[in-house]
Amino acid sequence: MQKSKVIYIILVVLGLILLGQSVFILDETEQAIVTQFGKPVGEPRTDPGVNFVIPIIQKVQFFDKRYLEWDGDKNQVPTKDKKFIFVDTYARWEITDPLQFFIRLRDERSAQSRLDDILDGETRNAIASHDLLDIVRSTNRDPEVTEDFMEELEVLEDIEVGREAIEEIVLQKANERTSDLGVRILDFRFKRMNYVDEVRDRVYDRMISERNRIADQFRSEGQGEARKIQGDKERDLAQIQSEAKRQAEEIRGRADAEATAIYASAYNKNQQSIALYRFLRSMEALENSLDEKTNLVISSDSDLFQYLKEMQ
User: Fold this and answer.
1) Which has the closest alpha carbon to 89: 62, 122, 66, 55?
2) pLDDT in tens, 256-293
């Protein structure tokens, strides 16, 4: 009796094990295929829910149903106009046919390796077929001018294709090569592009030279404006000084005339006053005109000669 119970228990355990191996559950993020002795059987299981297989002889291969990421390696690629640049790319892809995917690629690791070959190759072909300007620009819009000096910078040439169109070309050609792999590339983008070190140094030197040229232009304009301001200042100063001198002379002339009139009215009362006035004016003129080293030549009929003669 006890022996039969043990056998019963063993049979129940084996039944539970087989039942567990015959049932699997798919969630919304997964899809699967069933293999028997390593070969796929039946249709792919893509709907979420409970599924059944034959235990022991059948196994389940699960694949991701979500969008997957591909990140390309940074490669040095020559453009059509013989300029070497580093190109870094990325893409998004999905498994559209899990059965074909399992037959051709087996797993996601192999798929990533195959996408490396396809996308890197198409990227090289696209870069080598277009000029650098087409790769870095998307439209022919005019650059936005935020400073006056930017108007004098070199005008960019028009592009024929553009960056977005090149990305679309790579995406289209890559999907043509992956159509029999059970995958579809959803999006492809250039993540980053940069010159190689040698070319980048030349670009930096050109940028520095251009900025130095603009700085020299600013300095030249500033010096010209400074000279103009200095000239205006000197002209205005000379004009002010000339006007001030003229006014001073006019004031001095009017003062002399008034003083002369006052002297004349004061000394014109009699002959002695007139003689005294003439004498003082002559002495004043003599004081302002002579010094120790001055030789004076006067006529014999001048008032000064008469005064000097009378003093002797």
Assistant:
1) 122
2) 888 777 766 766 666 666 666 777 777 777 677 666 77
